[in-house]
Amino acid sequence: MKRVSLKDIADSLKVSKTLVSLVLNGKGDQWGINGDTQKKVINKARELNYHPNQMARGLRTGKSNIIGLVVADISNHFYAKISRTVEREVTKLGYQLLVCSSDEIENKEHNLIDLLKDRQRAEGIIVATTQKKASQFKQLIKEQFPIVFIDRNPAIKGASYVGVDNRQGAFEMVEHLIEQKIDKIGLINISPTHISSLSERVEGYKKALKKHGISYSNSIHAVSYFDVEKTTDEAVRQLIAPSCGMKALFAVNNYVAVNCLQAIHKMNIRIPEDVSLVCFDDMDAFKFSQPPLTTVAQPLEQIGEEAVKLLMAQIIDKDFSPRTKILPANIVVRKSSGAIKHERGK
Amino acid sequence: MKRVSLKDIADSLKVSKTLVSLVLNGKGDQWGINGDTQKKVINKARELNYHPNQMARGLRTGKSNIIGLVVADISNHFYAKISRTVEREVTKLGYQLLVCSSDEIENKEHNLIDLLKDRQRAEGIIVATTQKKASQFKQLIKEQFPIVFIDRNPAIKGASYVGVDNRQGAFEMVEHLIEQKIDKIGLINISPTHISSLSERVEGYKKALKKHGISYSNSIHAVSYFDVEKTTDEAVRQLIAPSCGMKALFAVNNYVAVNCLQAIHKMNIRIPEDVSLVCFDDMDAFKFSQPPLTTVAQPLEQIGEEAVKLLMAQIIDKDFSPRTKILPANIVVRKSSGAIKHERGK
DNA sequence: ATGAAAGCGCTAACAA
DNA sequence: TTGTTAGCGCTTTCAT
């Protein structure tokens, strides 16, 4: 099954490879190539079922037509949805998307980015980084390698970023709970906690409590990404223990929320009668969970679209001025944040 | 920011490109190249931060190191999980994974496969096909292009396939319901219904009912992938209407199940008191849904692993003998299949 | 034990 | 309006 190359078309038509290449790349008119000749070439290409070899073309042009996307876990609904949009958008522009999961391991992410850039010669990368160190990114930005950060802002000078207003979203969520007359609100964070989107949410949470004169000492726990089930059970248990007495739990993202739900169900505690549960990140599953969860929803499609836009400004327009796009996050009220029915402070 | 090439290393070491290539590809010993020279080369490569250009290498060797995965929708939990495993496994073997979503559109899938094979020169493809026509696949198999089918068996001579025993899984689920004294069991299928995994489940469903002497005329409805919400509402409404009187609904996959849950919640009907709901495909979300769902769980990791194994038999060992791996599907009993509490046949 | 040279398929500068 | 040629970076055959 030999593959058809430019040369095959050229030979069978008694013309040069150059001409064929020009025509097939739509530069026929521009170079004033005979209309009939063009048609012949195009027909022949179709007849022989010709497909350009991306590797040869890439080698010659220095363009791979590959965009990389690096996230913590592509099977997480949040990233899966974003990746769908990113794929759709870059495909429209003639690129292919290579998606990798870092498993929230800094080293792995570092390697993945190297691999994408150096081996695959990706032309740009979109990343929700888990790295604490900024050296790799600083270098990338310095050498003007196209890169856009999503979800997690590494706060590096010159970096372009797309995300939501985490502070505001968390702030509003806490105020919503307070409106329900709930003032004992625990926050369940997840380590690695240096991730900007998480710390911003914590800030929003603190700000709201402060505004209402509520203390948050002892009300924040962090579970571990690498041992979620056990650490979540513990965190929930401690926060709702009488000594602590939280009447609402705010899970810092969907992953934590799912584990909180499981932990709470295991303990045979009712939501929202015994404790309310809300979280950042929305998903379909939360519409019909037991009970439906009140969440802060992020505009996932828009995040993907904006990220591609910013990346293309760098790749195509060579515009490396750092841009930041902060989108609004909106509260979706469902049953889980209902006011606690029985007596308080018990 | 010029990239470092083999030549740069060769020049700075006053040796040939050949030698450098040989050493860096681990063929130094095999060619009897001086140990010291090898070390020098390796160190220099590291010092200059050398990375081979995949495109150049691919052009020369005819190998792209790319594997393609084509599914209906990568943001569906089922495919997302499988893709994670596939990615992990092919990465171990030095390949990169390119994932594409067909959106259940036959033409799109056809193009995606062409693109993967012809443009990207993917060395093999794993696909959960939505195509009714077999021509593309027959051609691929005829020319010994490495391809493995997952989840959906196209039933083409010579095709390799990995999936679960859908018939058995559906059969057991229906028997489980019957054990709960539920004998009015509706099935909600989804079009395109020609997909093998779906039709096998329908068969299993029918076989179980037949065994117990229960008729299934009027008890099967199919919703549409392209207008799920509306069609699911209708299907559920009709099946549980007094004229039909189903006491359990069996959703043919997770996507249908999610929509059934939403439809049922909207109608203010209780599960399982008013109607039971079970489905094929398990996900975390079903553990804590309202109520937790009884499901048929597929071994997702294993499906991914086996698919890669079969694909590699073709790519590496050039063994194109068709292999089929049917894995068991297991029932996970939760609350949603509980016996109906109130009087029957009303 | 090491090197020279050809060539994978393509594009683009330059010729004609 | 069309063709010739060089070369992208790599691997591999054949020489030395």
Taking the sheet with the most strands of chain A, its summary is:
6 strands, parallel
What is the typical, i.e. mean, pLDDT of chain A?
Answer: 92
Identify the quaternary structure here.
homodimer
CATH first level of the largest domain in chain A: which class?
Alpha Beta
Largest interface (CB < 8 Å): A-B, 46 and 46 residues
- CATH topology tier name of the largest domain in chain A: Rossmann fold
Tell me the β content of chain A: 15-25%
CATH superfamily of the largest domain in chain A: Response regulator
Kindly state the percentage of residues in helix of chain A. Answer: 40-55%
Supply the CATH architecture of the largest domain in chain A: 3-Layer(aba) Sandwich
Question: What descriptors fit this protein?
Answer:
homodimer; 346 residues; alpha/beta; 434 Repressor (Amino-terminal Domain); Rossmann fold; six-stranded parallel sheet; six-stranded mixed sheet; 12 helices; 12 strands; 16% strand; elongated; DNA-binding
